[in-house]
Amino acid sequence: MPVIDVQTDTDALTLTITAEFAAPVERVWEVYENPRRLEKVWGPPEYPATFVEHDFTRGGRATYYMTSPEGEKFGGWWRFETIDPMSSFTFEDGFADAELKPLDGMPVSQNRYVFEATDSGTRAVFTSTYESAENLQKVLEMGIIEGASAAINQIDDLLAA
């Protein structure tokens, strides 16, 4: 299982997930750079993702939806802030309505994904920072730890295929 640690810090308003992958940084990075590969691992296995837009450049946007087993769609959006190829990227992440427009009243997080080569592959640290303790608590209650961990744990299998 790639996820090796999950930490929440209500003082810093963060959720941090650390994972180790049995693949070099370049291959893990490509998962996030390529929307067709990202679709295979974004979200829990039973909620496959479809990326409608994925402009992986500074200032670029991504929009997507995850489809539940019952066919219900849940939208999301990203706005990429910085991209340091093969090392890290930062982005704003929020919930979206049926037209994939930002959904008012739902938490928005600032995210930093960092990738580092190790002797056995790649260590990735995924940190999400929320505006308030209430917003952090809301996503925790929605199951973000379980959903994100299930999603991240799919990456090794994708890269091995």
TrEMBL record:
Gene3D superfamilies: 3.30.530.20. It comes from the Bacteria. Residues 22-159 form the Activator of Hsp90 ATPase homologue 1/2-like C-terminal domain. Belongs to the AHA1 family. This is Activator of Hsp90 ATPase homologue 1/2-like C-terminal domain-containing protein. The lineage of its organism: Bacteria, Bacillati, Actinomycetota, Actinomycetes, Mycobacteriales.
